[in-house]
Design goal:
Number of strands: 0
Helix content: over 70%
Structural class: mainly alpha
Oligomer: single chain
Number of helices: 21
Length: 410
């Protein structure tokens, strides 16, 4: 732990922040982002119970329609939040935006717990998604600009595991709290974190130094940065869409391949391995970047994710224990990619427009995923089953690979 902390804090000489400041910044950003992961998953965990509690007896079609609406609205809120909070972040600073976006998703998560109808739940989920999208951008910018040197990639890599930790925590909350309304009261925790942020977070030097956006008229759509915006959006979006498809459809694919009516053990083990692999990959990503370079890391992630998708989804005609290893390896490179991309994307833009541009790159792919939620059943049927669908979606990794090659050295 001390070695990691020392490495992460190596940026204090150039950022002007001491060890205590860096520890507080990282702790608050990690907690805020982690509970963003909790909030993003919590409704999915409780959805069948919550919808039936809100609507009473419903048919399977009604349950699926309402569930799809609630999930899709959250994703769209996340997408808009990532872009809009990015713009706000460039205007008022990183520290205040971390605090406000955390308050946003924490407050509306608590309000879900007392919402009397499903449409009010849907509205609260949109606003909580709006806050989560902002937190993921603003905490990345806060950590990115607070560290420099070798510690920066390591700090961002460790921050990238906060979402998987939050997803795991949502499962733990489901295990401990069977009542869905009580579970959503955990939104009070990020509210406490936001209070701490207000008291202790210091603004980053990089945001203070450049001319303010309002004075320069600079936009991330401006000519000098338009190419970087397109490149960053394609590179991050392709990995996001590929990951979303695999994490969303993997359990059903496992069940269809196993030939078992339930396959609870196989599904559970698969998702645990995916989560553990993602955590491992994110944690080591900073050291991988330093070992082989940022661009090579990203190229390796795209290439190996495509290769492992081919092996996993096309070469397994029936379920076998080797598939567990293949899933875990795929997830490790998912995790590495998230840490590497958290370093790469903010570096494409100056600090004066960095949060807005990063938010756009992080979230434009969610327009696709939010829309696709409504058409999952039709997509799987049209593409010939879950195995074929997953493999076809994996071709998007090749698009990301080509975009990284075209982007040149970084």
């Amino acid at each position: 732990m001390s070695a990691t902390t020392s490495t992460m804090e190596s940026g204090r000489v150039t950022t002007g922040l001491g060890r205590g400041d860096l520890r507080l910044i990282f702790a608050i950003c990690f907690i805020s982002s982690m509970f963003g992961g909790v909030v993003s998953t919590l409704m999915s965990v409780y959805l069948p119970v919550a919808v039936r509690d809100l609507l009473g007896p419903v048919t399977d079609k009604e349950l699926n329609d309402v569930s799809a609406t609630i999930n899709s609205v959250f994703i769209f809120g996340w997408m808009f939040g990532g872009v809009i909070w990015g713009l706000i972040c460039d205007r008022i600073g990183r520290a205040r935006t971390v605090m406000l976006s955390t308050v946003c998703y924490g407050l509306f998560t608590v309000l879900v717990a007392i919402a009397p109808s499903w449409w009010m739940v849907t509205g609260c989920r949109f606003v909580s998604g709006f806050g989560v999208g902002g937190v993921l951008v603003t905490t990345t910018m806060m950590v990115s600009e607070s560290w420099s040197g070798k510690g920066r990639a390591v700090a961002l890599g460790i921050l990238s595991i906060s979402i998987p930790v939050g997803i795991f925590s949502a499962g733990l909350i489901n295990f401990l709290l069977p009542q869905w309304r009580l579970a959503f009261l955990t939104g009070a925790v990020p509210l406490v974190a936001a209070g701490a942020a207000m008291l202790v977070l210091k603004e980053t030097g990089k945001w203070k130094r450049p001319p303010r956006l309002a004075n320069t008229g600079l936009s991330f759509f401006s000519g000098p940065y338009r190419k970087n915006l397109l490149t960053g959006s394609v590179i991050f979006g392709t990995m996001l869409i590929g990951m979303w498809a695999i994490f969303s459809w993997l359990p059903t694919w496992v069940q269809s391949l196993s030939g078992l009516a339930d396959a609870q053990h196989e599904r559970g083990m698969s998702m645990m391995l995916m989560g553990a692999g993602g955590l491992t990959g994110g944690f080591v990503s900073g050291w991988v970047v330093h070992a082989i370079g940022l661009r090579r890391t990203m190229l390796a992630c795209f290439a190996i994710c495509f290769g492992m998708s081919f092996i996993l989804f096309k070469l397994n005609g029936s379920w076998n224990s080797l598939a567990y290893l293949e899933e875990a390896l795929l997830a490790v490179f998912f995790g590495i990619s998230q840490g590497a991309l958290s370093v790469y994307i903010p570096e494409l833009f100056p600090a004066s427009i960095g949060a807005a541009a990063t938010g756009f790159c992080f979230n434009v792919g969610r327009l696709f995923t939010g829309t696709a939620v409504f058409f999952v059943g039709a997509l799987v049927t049209w593409l010939g089953g879950y195995g074929n669908t997953l493999f076809i979606f994996s071709f998007i990794f090749l698009i990301g690979l080509l975009a990284t090659l075209v982007a040149g050295k970084k």
